[in-house]
Amino acid sequence: MSADSPGESPDGSPSEDEPTDAEALQNALRAEHAAVYGYGFIGAHCAGKDRERSYTCLDAHRTKRDTLRSELVRLSVDPAASKSAYALPDATDQDTLDTFATELEERTTHGYLRLAAANDVSLRDLAARSLQEATVRGLTWGAELVDLPGFPDGSGGSAPEDVAGD
């Protein structure tokens, strides 16, 4: 990759404002940890088709979490551990759970947006596919489609630093 590549300084090292591939993977992994935790909560508080949908999302996030962990191990980096707890909504009515699910998906899109700038082509591909999948899952929970999924305002602003949803 040339020194003019995104995320690199003129000497070829990562620039200060762009995460390394490992940092971007860790950020996406932290978002997946939070999503797995959140969907466990959602599934425990809904029924019928909503429960089935939440467990489908839970399985998808577990799979992504495991993929991200494998990629970090491939890079000889210790994967970030899951926290013992993440922020959850106070209410458990279906509207609140739907909103919470859309927020989980939005946070994962933020994590994958950062990974989309990875130097490794396979990681960029993983990020693009994962960002698309999270966007579609969010739509099934009632999220609005934005022009640029993954950006905080959907219009190309800078992505947030921390996406874990503490």
Automatic annotation (TrEMBL):
Q: Where is this region: Disordered?
A: 1-24
Q: Which SUPFAM superfamilies match?
A: Ferritin-like
Question: InterPro entries per the record?
Answer: DUF4439 (IPR029447), Ferritin-like (IPR012347), Ferritin-like_SF (IPR009078)
Cite a single Pfam family from the UniProt record. DUF4439
The highest taxon in the source lineage is Bacteria
Instruction: Pinpoint the DUF4439 domain residues.
Output: 24-152
Compositionally biased tracts (Low complexity): 1-13
Could you identify this protein by its name?
A: DUF4439 domain-containing protein
Q: What species is this protein from?
A: Lipingzhangella halophila
Lineage here is: Bacteria, Bacillati, Actinomycetota, Actinomycetes, Streptosporangiales
